[in-house]
Amino acid sequence: MSIRLRIFLFILLASACAGAVRAADSAASLLERCAEKLAASPSVSARFTVRASDGGDTAGEIVVARERFRMSSPQLHIWFDGRTQWSALAAAKEVNITEPTAEELLTTNPFAIITGYAGRYNCRLLPHAAGTPANVKQVELIPRQGTSGDIRRAVISIDTRTLWPVKAVVTMASGATVAATVTGCAVGGKLPVSAFTFKPSALPGYEVVDLR
Fold first, then answer.
1. Which of 17, 3, 18 lies closest to 73 in space, CA to CA?
2. Fewest C-beta atoms under 10 Å: which of 5, 48, 103, 168?
3. Mind listing the pLDDT tens digit for each residue in 19-69?
4. Which of 125, 100, 124 is nearest to 113 (CA)?
């Protein structure tokens, strides 16, 4: 699984419920309630596991606080403080520093998806799948005609009791699929900006590359 795809999927999990707020009424209502819960939370933490069709399995944790977030997995760590992003690649022992553009934030900033993707996807509720708990509903996101990008289709499973996403299955334009499961979503307290800023002491021995 590519680093870019990992980043997108991790962030999609943190903000899947806000992916397309203007759509069919029933789906839009559920999405809007999810978005409102995310926006009202001082911070949200979750654990995730990801399984890709190419065998690139991974697991990790993510913490989101409005426009800021940090994510950690054995392969990749990301910090974003609202302006600057640090991406640490374990395989290269390298930390890249960037200041993402508005377009780049569509795949790295969870709350940019709320406004950036709203006009790019149509959504609908899928029929209840056999074996799925009664409280879980599936929302399908399909790119609108005329839009381009890496995603062909995404199906987000939402627990209607908690309004947290519990699973996301993403089909890429290449035909590759990635399935991610979310557990342990929890609302936390307000966090300082420093909680979303990379500290060299966190990853000793990593080379820092400033790409700004």
1. 3
2. 103
3. 443 444 477 777 777 777 777 889 988 888 877 777 767 788 888 887 788
4. 100
